[in-house]
């Protein structure tokens, strides 16, 4: 076919792909993503927003809600599990564009696997394809969607989930193309939650997961969607990232040889991605003996593109009104690293973010724009502390710990899952059960089973 659209090229690749074609590095990333995502969803089940989303999506069915007792339909399972997995902003991401593929793709594919009785390998293929598409779309988007006021996970996640479901269910090329075309009209998600720390960002992953299932179901049924959904004059990027001139080669080149899925990043801390290296720097200052009472001022060199989400308005960021708002406050995160020595789930509770010592220190944290900062191509960190005795001490970090340049080993992924299970008053040993479940996906043509997922019910 002449002048194939980008969705058609993707559809041809997806339709021809076998689970056995997926390389080991991508398989490991998929397995780690399943471990990370499910444990996070379980950890959040008792949170107020999780209770609310379970109440909103209460259609009975057979699909598991991880960490809860009642089954729901696949759309509800995807929406609930995705919202809970993404709710603490501790889920995996992607450097270059912080799209959270795991909290979208894993809930969508595991729900579809249960609902339609797919094989484990089919689910594994769908997981790999969904993460791959999310990351490649993220490369094209860069910071364009955030600049326009949209959340990349909400927009790109819908496309990724539809691609993953289409792959797992064995759709034909025309069906996949239509599924992607329909998904473009289901994509949505504004970032106004930054104004007050409200809950809508949390639902974006879950909404994208269930929207992806619905789009793929419509495509499979023959409902037509625009083939030019990505590159069209009124397509996805024209609508959601109008400030950029998209380079679509990143979306469709080297599909058989370059697996962006393998470059997924895992967070060591339960907050915004770009803040993570700054927390590492703050913790190293703490380890060097720097104590909050001796600090007069802290200055962080930052990329200009991070300011509107993580630093301004500065007075609000220095005293975030709620735990969720604190997750997108670099002043709070730096202060938490120095005061608590960590920034996990326990450091983003109501009690933690109201601690007067942390808030006092956060009020001393300021920023200056570094014109040479590599964001969004690379996430770096810098903390410079001016002390009462006149000394100036600083730390720098050249990459995101947990990212492609400094990946977290499986042992740390498991340790994180164990900590998250324990936070939810579950057994730390559940992480090993989850590891075995994730490791079985690529190795068996047996029907997908939700037995392990059910074992995490409350």
Keywords:
single chain; 458 residues; alpha+beta; 2-methylcitrate dehydratase PrpD; 60s Ribosomal Protein L30, Chain: A; 2 domains; four-stranded mixed β-sheet; 22 helices
Describe the structure.
The termini are far apart. The protein is globular, with a radius of gyration of 21 Å. The mean pLDDT is 95. The longest helix has 22 residues, at 120-141. The protein folds into two domains: 6-267 and 408-454, 2-methylcitrate dehydratase PrpD (Orthogonal Bundle), CATH 1.10.4100; 273-397, 60s Ribosomal Protein L30, Chain: A (2-Layer Sandwich). The protein is built from 22 helices and five strands. Helices cover 50% and strands 7% of the residues. A hairpin with a 4-residue loop joins strand 4 (381-387) and strand 5. By secondary structure, it is α+β, with helices and mostly antiparallel strands. A four-stranded mixed sheet has the order 3-2-4-5, with helices on one face.
């Amino acid at each position: 076919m002449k002048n194939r659209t980008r969705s058609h090229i993707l559809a041809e690749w997806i339709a021809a792909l076998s689970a056995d074609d997926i390389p080991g590095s991508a398989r490991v990333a998929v397995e780690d993503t399943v471990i990370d995502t499910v444990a996070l969803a379980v950890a959040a089940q008792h949170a107020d927003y999780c209770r609310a989303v379970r109440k909103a999506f209460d259609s009975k069915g057979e699909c598991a809600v991880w960490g809860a007792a009642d089954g729901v339909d696949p759309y509800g399972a995807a929406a609930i599990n995705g919202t809970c997995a993404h709710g603490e902003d501790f889920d995996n991401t992607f450097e270059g564009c912080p799209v959270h593929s795991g909290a979208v793709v894993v809930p969508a594919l595991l729900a579809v696997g249960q609902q339609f009785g797919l094989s484990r390998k089919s689910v594994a293929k769908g997981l790999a394809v969904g993460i791959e598409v999310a990351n490649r779309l993220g490369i094209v988007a860069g910071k364009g969607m955030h600049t326009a006021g949209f959340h990349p996970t909400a927009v790109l996640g819908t496309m990724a989930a539809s691609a993953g479901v289409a792959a797992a269910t064995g759709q034909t090329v025309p069906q996949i193309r239509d599924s992607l075309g329909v998904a473009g009209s289901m994509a949505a998600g504004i970032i106004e939650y930054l104004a007050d720390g409200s809950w809508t960002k949390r639902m974006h992953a879950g909404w994208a997961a269930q929207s992806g299932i619905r789009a793929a179901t419509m495509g499979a049924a023959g409902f037509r969607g625009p083939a030019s959904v990505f590159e069209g004059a009124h397509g996805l990027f024209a609508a959601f990232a109008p400030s950029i001139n998209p380079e679509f080669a990143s979306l469709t080149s080297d599909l058989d040889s370059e697996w962006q899925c393998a470059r997924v990043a895992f967070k060591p801390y339960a907050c915004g991605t770009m803040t993570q290296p700054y927390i590492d720097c703050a913790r190293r200052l703490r380890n060097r003996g720097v104590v909050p009472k001796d600090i007069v001022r802290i200055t962080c060199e930052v990329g200009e593109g991070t300011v509107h989400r993580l630093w301004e308005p500065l007075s609000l960021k220095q005293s975030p009104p709620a735990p969720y708002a604190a997750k997108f406050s670099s002043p709070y995160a730096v202060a938490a690293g120095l005061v608590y020595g960590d920034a996990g789930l326990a450091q983003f509770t109501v009690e933690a973010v109201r601690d007067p010592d942390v808030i006092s220190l956060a009020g001393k944290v300021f920023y200056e724009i570094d014109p040479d900062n590599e964001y969004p191509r690379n996430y770096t960190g810098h903390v410079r502390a001016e002390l009462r005795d006149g000394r100036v001490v600083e730390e720098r970090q050249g990459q995101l710990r947990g990212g492609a340049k400094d990946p977290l080993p499986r042992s740390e992924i498991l340790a994180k899952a164990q900590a998250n299970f324990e936070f939810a008053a579950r057994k730390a040993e559940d992480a090993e059960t989850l590891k075995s479940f994730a490791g079985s996906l690529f190795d068996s043509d047996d029907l997908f089973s939700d037995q392990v997922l059910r074992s995490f019910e409350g």
